[in-house]
Amino acid sequence: MISLFRLKQKPLPPLVTDLHSHLLPSLDDGVKTFDESLAILRKFEALGYQKVITTPHINNEYYRNEPAQIESKLKELKELIRQEGISIEVVAAAEYYLDEDLIAKVNSKESLLTFSKNHLLFETNFLTEPYQLKEFIFQLITQGYKPVMAHPERYAYMTLEKASELRDRGVLLQVNIPSMLGLYSKPIQHLAARLIDNQLVDLIGSDCHHLQHVTSLEKAPENKIYRKALELPLLNNTL
Ligand SMILES: [Fe+2]
Question: Which CATH number belongs to the domain containing residue 99 in this structure?
Answer without folding.
Answer: 3.20.20.140
